[in-house]
Amino acid sequence: MLDVFTWLADWLIYHLAGLDPASKLGSSLHFFVEDTTKIFALLVVMIYVLALARASLNLEWVRHYIQQKNRFAGYGLGAGFGAITPFCSCSSIPLFLGFTSAGIPLGITMAFLFTSPIINEVAVIMLWSLLGWEFTLVYIAIGMIVGIGGGMILDLLKAERWLKEFAAKAYRQAAETPHQDEPAPETSTLTLKVRHVFARDELKEIVGRIWKWVIIGVGLGASLHGFVPDGWFADNLGSGQWWNVPAAVLAGLPLYSNATGVIPVMESLILKGLPVGTTLAFCMSTVAASFPEFIMLKQVMQWRLLGIIFVILLANFMVVGWLINLLSPWLFSGILT
């Protein structure tokens, strides 16, 4: 099926436009057309299908369900719900406040907040279509580990003491109130027509929000693909020196994007020879540890907690980068050849 998009790009760029496949412009435009048509086709189908499945998801029920679980199961549930909810880092913050106000341990709430911008259905669809299922599964596993590990560390530090006073007060009041006897929120069974309307509206909302990021991301990726000489990234940033990964993490901090915009860039960087781990570290830093996110978090957290979260994320991304670089010859031989 995916060969259809290659054929369409061949026809538009090489036959209709008459560009030379060996030229930089021809190569760049072919990359752009192939990836944008592939991404949008898959997004339309998969977002609609996933929205149908998620139509009955009740966030109040989610909060209640997490409250009833033990702490360790809660980390996985928090990260898991972060992965299936389509929120960027900034739009996740109102949900963060809701979870905190419900008395859910801060580590579980932060597992949700860490994971949500890194993993979502759009990112998974794009990764699967561009880099294959093996890379996608590794990316999902990394995002879950970052969320769960970060949440556990924050609970060990009793980090709720560094929330802003209004958030800390709401957390303490909820934590001191027993929840065991509270009835679970009612769930409703929606008709197929209602689920279709929900899925259609969510498809419009998500595509309307991300289409420009797809265009920008694929455009940047196409420019790298067509105009940057083969081997440049490998020669300059992929020397295998230990500092390559921290440098990539720091470079990603000021570049706010979401996973939609950064994944096509990730594809081009890998194809141009940048090590997989270094690329992952850069991209995860961009989507999950950006300055705009921390500006938003400052509304509910003291500086000390923001600093701890910042260090946890950067340390996680650097460890991930070093480890994946070490293991990539065995994990990703298909996309490295």
Describe this structure in words.
It is built from 17 helices and no strands. Helix 7 packs parallel to helix 13 and helix 12 runs parallel beside helix 14. The protein is mainly alpha-helical and 337 residues long. The model has no long low-confidence stretch (mean pLDDT 77).
Mind sketching the topology for me?
Elements: H1 3-16, H2 24-54, H3 59-67, H4 71-84, H5 93-101, H6 106-118, H7 121-131, H8 133-156, H9 165-175, H10 192-227, H11 232-237, H12 244-252, H13 259-271, H14 276-288, H15 291-297, H16 303-331, H17 333-336
Characterize this entry briefly:
The protein has 337 residues and is an all-alpha fold. The chain is built from 17 helices and no strands.
